[in-house]
């Protein structure tokens, strides 16, 4: 899926991506205006029951963001907003339009007071300051209506232009769910341990019962020895001892007669004399561990 402003319908779910600036002038492909979004919402079929809005935006014009917020709130479908990266400034207000508000653990909100530029005499500048306070109050009302944060605390955060983590937003009620970063396995450089885990986790063949633990351990050791031979090393690994209660066959087994080292030495083939030093072909190794 391309990551810019777009809307797509899949069954009863409408997907909206706001991956750019919120502005009345859509100069870039990623820009989104309230007019474009409202027109897109109006074309949705009545069968749509969920609007899924993904956000990664630095914000933009307050008037456009408030209009988008109100358009989403007014739609009869359930709205789910998701912060994929940043939801800054007025984009954080758009995020508040969700009935469900999800923040990825690796995402941030930025809240602050509205700002502008002004010229003129002192009276004009005073009026501009008063207007900014009125405009900022609209965002504050939405934050307070959505979350659970005291007015004084919210004023402090907005005056300081504050970045909020997903955990902080959850504590204040700004988001209803935090999507955790996917867990990854700890880095490992041991081929032997990786092979052991692979063999131990290998289920039995279809139609057969899982092998007893003693057989599984023997297979793991045998496979590790085969790997050592396949890469040209003579290192051997002896089978790990198995508790009597874990033996697959409790009946006694006659030990095999010990091999005569002199007989092996008399044989002219040195490979027969020291079989543990013969390198197993790679194909044979994979055939072994696939059994």
Automatic annotation (TrEMBL):
InterPro entries, per the entry: ClpP, ClpP/crotonase-like_dom_sf, ClpP/TepA
GO molecular function terms noted in the UniProt entry: ATP-dependent peptidase activity; ATPase binding; serine-type endopeptidase activity
Superkingdom assignment: Bacteria
Gene3D superfamilies on file: 2-enoyl-CoA Hydratase, Chain A, domain 1 (3.90.226.10)
Positions of the UniProt region annotated as Disordered: 232-282
Alphabetized Pfam families for the sequence: CLP_protease (PF00574)
An example Gene Ontology biological process: protein quality control for misfolded or incompletely synthesized proteins
Key words of the record: Cytoplasm, Hydrolase, Protease, Serine protease
CDD domains the record matches: S14_ClpP_1
One GO CC term, this protein: endopeptidase Clp complex
The family this protein is said to belong to: Belongs to the peptidase S14 family.
Protein name per UniProt: ATP-dependent Clp protease proteolytic subunit
Origin organism lineage: Bacteria, Bacillati, Actinomycetota, Coriobacteriia, Eggerthellales
């Amino acid at each position: 899926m391309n990551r810019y402003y777009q809307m797509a319908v899949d069954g009863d779910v409408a997907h909206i991506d706001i991956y750019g600036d919120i502005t009345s002038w859509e100069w870039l492909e990623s820009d989104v205006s309230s007019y474009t979004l409202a027109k897109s919402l109006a074309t949705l079929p009545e069968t749509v029951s969920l609007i899924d809005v993904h956000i990664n935006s630095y914000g933009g014009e307050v008037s456009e963001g408030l209009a988008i917020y109100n358009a989403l709130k007014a739609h009869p479908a359930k709205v789910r907003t998701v912060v994929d990266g940043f939801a800054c400034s007025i984009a954080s207000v758009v995020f508040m339009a969700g009935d469900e508000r999800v923040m990825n653990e690796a995402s941030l909100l930025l809240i602050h007071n509205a700002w502008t530029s002004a010229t003129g005499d002192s009276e004009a500048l005073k009026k501009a300051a008063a207007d900014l306070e009125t405009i900022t109050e609209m965002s504050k009302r939405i934050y307070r209506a959505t979350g659970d944060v005291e007015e004084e605390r919210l004023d402090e955060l907005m005056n300081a232009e504050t970045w909020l983590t997903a955990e902080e937003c959850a504590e204040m009620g700004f988001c209803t769910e935090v999507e955790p970063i996917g867990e990854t396995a700890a880095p490992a450089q041991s081929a032997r341990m990786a092979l052991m885990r692979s063999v131990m986790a290998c289920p039995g063949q279809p139609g057969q019962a899982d092998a007893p633990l003693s057989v599984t351990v023997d297979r793991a050791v045998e496979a590790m020895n085969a790997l050592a031979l396949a890469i040209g090393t003579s290192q051997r690994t002896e089978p790990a001892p198995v508790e009597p209660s874990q033996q697959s066959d409790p009946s006694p087994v006659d030990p095999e007669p010990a091999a005569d080292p002199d007989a092996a030495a008399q044989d002219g083939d040195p490979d027969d004399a020291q079989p543990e030093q013969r390198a197993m072909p790679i194909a044979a190794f994979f055939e072994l561990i696939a059994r």
